[in-house]
User: Fold this.
Amino acid sequence: MNIPRRKCVVSLAAMLAGLASVRAADGAGLPPLPLVESLRVSGLDVSLQSPPAHFVVRRALGLLTHESLDGQLIHRASGKDLVLETRATITPGGDYLLMFPEGDHYGNSKGRKVNRLLAYRSSDQGRTWAGPAEAFNIDYSQHGFIPLIPRGTKRIYAFGTQPIAGSYDFEHGQQENAPIGFRSSDDDGRTWSAVTLIRPTNDPEFKGMSVMRMCETDSGVWLLGAHASDFSKKPLVTRQYLLRSANRGKTWTVLPGAQPGGWFAAGFDRMDEGRPISLGGSKVLFMSRTTQGHLFTAWSDDDGATWTPPAPSGLVHPDAPPMMFALSDGHTLVAFHHNRVPRKEDGNLSAKSENMTVRSEIWASTSTDGGHTWTEPRFLLVNVATPDLENNWRNYQCSYLDAFSDVGTLHLFMPHRWQQVLHLTMPESALGSLPTKAQLAR
Assistant:
């Protein structure tokens, strides 16, 4: 049974009126961040005065990118506020809708509201953006926006973690485990329903966190990743789950079973931030974050009812989320990954600068066989902003990319340094022109 919570229908007029109370953030009018003079990219010394061939210093973005990729600054947080996970979709009406929390992470909220989920909208394929407006008029924090538009409908769903005061234990190492729920919109994402909390039939009190993209199979099955963390354990323990609905959200089951029986990487006691993606028909690929040094993958041939055991892929990646998306042909997958791991043997990131820099580089690999094999990684971009923030967790952050493809153009959304929101674009056809590590060295 699903339990609806607080009424949260927000009119467009109210959203627009709310702009007066939301700090204006016209990215085009903001000064660029200070840049470093040189850095190391995959062990190679690079000077911004003479960047590698076919690479450009994008001063307005704080990035060094391949010439095929450019973009714009949409939003920058002020003071100690963070911008958190960026997620965007093409609405049924053809607009681009972008959402992200600004403030503090909900895991630090202790049941209070410490952030707002902000929304931007573009009606010209991302050339210009209107906003920000607060997406939901609610009294608790948000983790992020997971969009789903079921086939054959004009309804948008917004899934995500729901840290409602009194609904979860934010102590005893459980501060990130909260109910998972969803809202819906029938007017192109301008107003939203109340939240419905997911209570799986085989684990009604399921708690976790969910911010990675979900999918719908050809037969209409919905699959949503969620993981649970236990910060009372040293080192941290996480377990990965999938929430599955075969009736468009009316009822759910949790896989591989009720808590605490989630998936994990043997020997590391960790697996989280899983991302399912439909491969067509009843086939689904599931990719997860681990500390083993690689992204893990699993496959289902029955709409996500059963799965192969998760195992390491060939994609080198640190303790950071998968960033995997489908291209316009509906067949080719692209995985953006960091292609480096930290020096600590257990794969966990530490506050040391040399370890946090693994999130500063983005490489791209593609697959045409459903993620069983991937091309050699090709270099796309690196952070070149001066590491002047107090927390190294922020200084090099280029992870948590979101993306979608529109008529052969990739649109990427980055919470850069957890400080500013970037909208980046590149032709899909340019992916094959990016250099491999050997080509970059030449």
